[in-house]
Design brief:
54% strand, alpha+beta, 2 helices, 11 strands, four-stranded antiparallel sheet, 173 residues
């Protein structure tokens, strides 16, 4: 039992150091900011049909050690929420694939995949967001207003923007 635990700890440590080593030096100590709007036609549990829309702003900081920190702000109607996540969560949510940062965000029974593509010098970026249900099935989620929604059509993302800046945008908070 003790040997299995040590092997597991060693494998975990190796995976963590590999993830840190995967971040290109040009991306370290940088903050990436994205924003977009996701709209999903949906119905509520009482059968009311609505077109839901949520504005999302996400900031991602990659430290000089390659650790990823994120902050997500969401707004829908008069409701809003903000969440911060450290490397203990983001290590599983983000991966670097060449000149792209790929992240997955849960959305009730569905998910969104965010792909941030960088230029060759990691000085500029573009963002693409795809949202859907598992196996094409309708998604169910709880809105910021507490209402449960079920999608009745495909999600669309509009106005994705992306920028990158040197330094830690979270340091002054």
């Amino acid at each position: 039992m003790k040997i299995i635990f040590l092997v597991s700890v060693a494998a975990f440590s190796l995976a963590q150091s590999s993830a840190m080593a995967a971040a290109p030096a040009a991306l370290m100590n940088k903050t990436i900011s994205t924003s977009f709007t996701v709209s999903i036609p949906a119905k509520t549990s009482d059968g009311s049909v609505r077109s839901t829309s949520r504005s999302v702003t996400k900031r991602i900081y990659i430290s000089s050690a390659g650790r990823v920190f994120s902050e997500t702000s969401r707004r829908a109607g008069g409701q809003s929420e903000r969440a911060e996540k450290g490397p203990e969560v983001t290590a599983k949510a983000f991966r670097i694939d060449g000149n792209r940062l790929v992240g997955v965000m849960a959305l009730g029974s569905g998910a969104s995949q965010m792909v941030i593509s960088f230029d060759s010098g990691f000085q500029s970026c573009t963002a693409q967001i795809l949202t859907g249900g598992q196996g094409g099935r309708p998604m169910t989620w709880k809105g910021l207003n507490g209402v449960v929604y079920t999608s009745t059509g495909s999600a669309t993302t509009s106005s994705p923007s992306c920028s990158i800046q040197a330094g830690n945008a979270f340091a002054g908070q």
